[in-house]
Specification:
This protein is an all-alpha fold. The protein contains 5 helices and no strands. Among the domains are: about 30 residues, no CATH class; about 40 residues. It starts with a helix and ends in an 11-residue tail after the last helix.
Length: about 120
């Protein structure tokens, strides 16, 4: 750019052409880097002090053996069924009722002989 144009730019905008070009170049570089993931050299430590955990003392798979031998008491309930139960107590009550009903039903079928009996007419 000519000396005369650079002086005109300085008078009009209060900045030299070279400084404006550098600012424009820096702005483009910032926009290019805006979508790149920011990699922090230091991990975020956003745990509350009461949750301070020393990972150096952690034991990997501590409960894995017990889970394999004893199993788990967790059961996944389908979403449509979960809507019918507000809490675990109601699920437990419904399961107990179903078990009791199954026991009563099994008892009824055991007592019957399977043969039709004739009724006596009085």
């Amino acid at each position: 750019m000519g000396h005369r144009q650079s002086d005109a730019n300085l008078r009009k905008h209060g900045v030299t052409f070279e400084a404006a070009a550098q600012a424009f170049e820096d702005g483009n570089q910032q926009r290019k880097n805006a979508m790149k993931p920011k990699i922090s050299s230091k991990p975020d430590d956003n745990l509350r002090p009461e949750y301070d955990f020393d990972f150096s003392k952690a034991e990997r798979g501590r409960y894995a053996k017990r889970l394999k031998t004893e199993g788990s008491n967790l059961v996944l309930v389908e979403p449509d069924l979960a809507k019918s139960f507000p809490d675990s107590a109601s699920v437990n009550a419904a399961l107990r009722s179903a078990i009791e009903f199954a026991k009563l039903s099994a008892g009824l079928t055991k007592r019957s002989s399977g043969r039709a009996t004739k009724r006596r007419v009085a």
